[in-house]
Amino acid sequence: LELEADLRLALDRGELKLHYQPTIDMNDSRVIGFEALVRWQHPTRGLINPLDFIPIAEATGLIVPLGRWVLTEACRQAVEWAERDNSRPIKMAVNVSVRQFDRSDLPTVVREVLTETGMPADQLCLEMTESVLMTDTEENLAQLVRLKALGVTLAIDDFGTGYSSLAYLRRFPVDTLKIDRSFVERLGEQSDDAALASTIVQLGQSLGMSTVAEGIEEYGQLAALRDMGCTFAQGFYFSRPVPAGEAGRLLLQGA
Ligand code: G
Ligand code: G
Ligand code: MN
Ligand code: NA
Prior knowledge:
Keywords: Membrane, Transmembrane, Transmembrane helix. Residues 1-255 form the EAL domain. This is Putative diguanylate cyclase/phosphodiesterase with PAS sensor. It is a single chain. By secondary structure, this protein is an alpha/beta fold. The protein has helices at residues 2-13, 50-60, 63-84, 106-117, 131-134, 137-150, 166-171, 181-185, 193-206, 219-228, 244-253; strands at 16-25, 31-42, 46-48, 91-95, 124-128, 153-159, 176-179, 210-213, 232-233, 242-243. The chain has an eight-stranded mixed beta barrel, surrounded by five helices. The protein has a single domain (2-253), classed as EAL domain (TIM Barrel), CATH 3.20.20.450. The termini are far apart. The longest helix is centred in the first third of the chain and has 22 residues, at 63-84. β8 (210-213), α10 and β9 form a beta-alpha-beta unit. Residues 157-158, 178, 214 line the site of sodium ion. One guanosine-5'-monophosphate binds at residues 21, 37, 95, 157-158, 181, 214-217, 234-236, 241.
């Protein structure tokens, strides 16, 4: 409860900040963009992980202003990098909560943020979990269609851990599947996870969607996923989520 009161103030006080984790092209190991991940620099408790405050934000409705702040800051940063480094347009992925679909105004918010920041729509990717497809399906589908019409791309996060049916996947205008890191974790060991990861990559290919492997920590996982045909990668093997200054340097290095 105390945290809830603090979170109300945190936005105004500028206590939230974004870290950025690079997304890598598996074929040439270049940075093609970043995922923005929110952090809360609490005045007395220190750095608070999103897992400890996003659920509070979702339950209280604070996710709406918080989500708008994240979108705005991530787009502002992407535009700043593009102006500095204008030969390389980068993708910026932002996580959106299913609760941000509740008011039916997410497409309006995104359109306003794109205009305010000058962010090209095709450089913004919205990541959402399968719950967006499985609750208020028709209403959320209508919003996803409006988002696609703006030109932004859509990704399903933590894919394979939820409960979406393949029929749903075909109906939704999704561009990218992010393979949950639980499948990546045990790739080398005796398990079914290699078969599952490979199946997700093939599913993406047959539906015309790109695939991003999350949570790559070792070279062997990278090699295995690349051999499966997965195109993009994220994980501590390349970089942890880092503050903007460090992310900007990764971009210049192209590493
Ligand atoms: O950055 P980290 O791995 O600690 O993130 C933990 C979880 O918090 C992840 O599931 C991530 O998707 C989620 N998360 C991080 N930033 C945001 C955000 O800006 N909005 C929402 N809705 N979730 C976020
Ligand atoms: O749910 P989502 O995919 O948005 O979660 C992103 C979270 O995953 C971030 O909190 C980030 O810190 C974490 N993460 C990113 N790469 C790795 C990795 O290689 N290993 C582990 N254990 N966590 C990772
Ligand atoms: Mn994500
Ligand atoms: Na994920």
